[in-house]
């Protein structure tokens, strides 16, 4: 795609677009070459459950919850509470988000889980539509229930106590549910994704990368911000679709893992260096976001994180052979649905009590040395408030361990999120 412009070819704007197009090309190349290279290796067919995929999901969930509990900074303004994080105040901290923004990794794991569960359901004579409806129902019922309760509570509290800011407060509590909305969308589109995968294989990845890059170019060049909605499917769909190649990547030569890591990292660095994308992979107030809507940076990020995950696999599998590690991973996965749903409810309860006891909304406006010193303990309060909420309202969504621990991963990996 070319743009008509009167600027000199050496202007920063043209140079930025050239770097963007170069980064797009590198992502397309690695998405095709790395996956095609892995195709030459036989897919893993071990009947035992992949405990590493369970660990990746547990790790991703803990990072998301811990980030919200430990690094959320609430700033009160005239219209109510606003959430920010230390990323906007601490120079260079945005680089940590290249590892700690784990939503792309979560969707990658979810893609593999969906495919594996569908294979098992199909082998048992299930239809794709019944399978998809079960997935949607299992996710939608608790999500909509929580959303409805908070909306009703917000309306009631606002009417009784005349709290004009309650709408913003409710919005902050339920805002992480965007993830459930995207996951429901991917579950609904699963028949399409599987059909495309069976017929076009890795070409689907190339198409999604190209679509994401085209959307970004049109947004940045012409200001068509509404096109960002397309990337909700293109970018998150690519992360999910990449999970269909998980078994091939596991069986691929070691050099493929390093190819993914370095190519993803180089593309990510090139996109940020172009000046068109922010360096942070989480939202920072007042800056352009790589997450809302998702951009080509998230594509590069999932390629990088998939490479990191595979490079760490041998060392982590040794640790996961230990019973203690397995129990921790299994426990987190058992409580994954209610923990994700209710962790911000617990945080809201903790902050409400803290504000009431302190007599003021005593949030810092930017991190101080004392604030950083107490970060390792910041999860304690929200955790103590979240556990009773899970016990009272979320027990029905806690998964019970199966009697056959050697069951395939597809038996349970995609049962919730």
What strand line-up does the widest sheet have?
A: 1-2
Mean pLDDT: 87
Count of DSSP E strands? Answer: 2
* Structure annotation, total helices: 17
Q: What spatial form do the alpha-carbon principal axes imply?
A: globular
Task: Report on this structure.
By secondary structure, this protein is mainly α. The chain contains 17 helices and two strands. Helix 1 packs antiparallel against helix 12 and helix 10 (228-242) runs parallel beside helix 13 (296-320). Mean pLDDT is 87; it is low at 1-10, 37-47 and 403-417.
What is the gist of this entry?
Helices cover 67% and strands 2% of the residues.
List the helices and strands and how they pair.
Blueprint: H1 12-39, H2 51-71, E1 73-77, E2 80-84, H3 97-100, H4 103-123, H5 128-161, H6 166-174, H7 178-188, H8 190-200, H9 203-222, H10 228-242, H11 246-251, H12 254-273, H13 296-320, H14 323-334, H15 336-358, H16 369-373, H17 380-393
Antiparallel strand pairs: 1-2
Helix pairs in contact: 1-9, 1-12, 1-13, 2-4, 2-13, 2-14, 2-15, 4-10, 5-6, 5-7, 9-10, 10-13, 12-13, 15-17
Salient structural properties:
mainly alpha; disordered N terminus; 67% helix; 2 strands; 2% strand; 417 residues
């Amino acid at each position: 795609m070319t743009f008509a412009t009167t600027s000199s070819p050496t202007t920063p704007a043209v140079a930025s677009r050239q770097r963007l197009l170069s980064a797009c090309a590198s992502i397309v190349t690695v998405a095709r070459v790395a996956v095609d290279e892995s195709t030459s290796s036989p897919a893993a067919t071990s009947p035992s459950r992949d405990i590493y995929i369970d660990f990746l999901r547990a790790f991703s969930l803990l990072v998301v919850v811990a980030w919200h509990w430990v690094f959320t900074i609430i700033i009160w303004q005239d219209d109510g509470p606003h959430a920010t994080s230390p990323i906007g105040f601490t120079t260079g901290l945005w680089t940590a988000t290249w590892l700690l923004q784990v939503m792309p990794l979560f969707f990658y794991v979810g893609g593999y889980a969906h495919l594996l569960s569908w294979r098992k359901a199909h082998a048992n004579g299930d239809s794709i539509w019944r399978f998809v409806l079960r997935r949607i129902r299992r996710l939608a019922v608790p999500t909509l229930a929580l959303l409805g309760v908070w909306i009703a509570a917000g309306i009631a509290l606002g009417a009784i106590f005349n709290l004009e800011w309650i709408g913003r407060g409710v919005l902050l509590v339920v805002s992480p549910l965007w993830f459930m909305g995207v996951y429901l969308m991917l579950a609904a589109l699963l028949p399409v994704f599987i059909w495309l995968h069976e017929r076009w294989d890795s070409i689907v990845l190339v198409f999604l990368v190209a679509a994401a890059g085209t959307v970004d170019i049109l947004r940045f060049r012409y200001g068509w911000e509404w096109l960002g909605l397309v990337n909700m499917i293109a970018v998150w769909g690519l992360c999910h679709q990449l999970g269909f190649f998980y078994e091939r990547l596991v069986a691929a030569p070691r050099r493929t893992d390093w190819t993914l890591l370095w190519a993803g990292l180089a593309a990510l660095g090139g996109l940020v260096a172009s000046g068109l994308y922010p360096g942070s992979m989480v939202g920072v107030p007042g800056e352009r976001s790589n997450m809302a809507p998702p951009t080509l940076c998230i594509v590069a990020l999932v390629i990088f994180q998939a490479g990191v995950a595979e490079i760490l696999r041998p060392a982590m599998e040794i640790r996961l052979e230990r019973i203690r590690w397995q129990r921790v991973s299994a426990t987190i996965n058992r409580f994954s649905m209610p923990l994700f749903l209710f962790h911000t409810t617990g945080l809201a309860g903790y902050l409400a009590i803290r504000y009431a006891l302190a007599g003021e909304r005593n949030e810092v406006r930017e991190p101080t040395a004392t604030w950083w010193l107490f970060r390792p303990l910041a999860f304690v309060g929200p955790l103590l408030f979240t556990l009773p909420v899970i016990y009272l309202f979320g027990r029905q969504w806690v998964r019970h361990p199966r009697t056959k621990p050697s069951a395939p991963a597809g038996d349970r990996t995609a049962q919730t999120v």
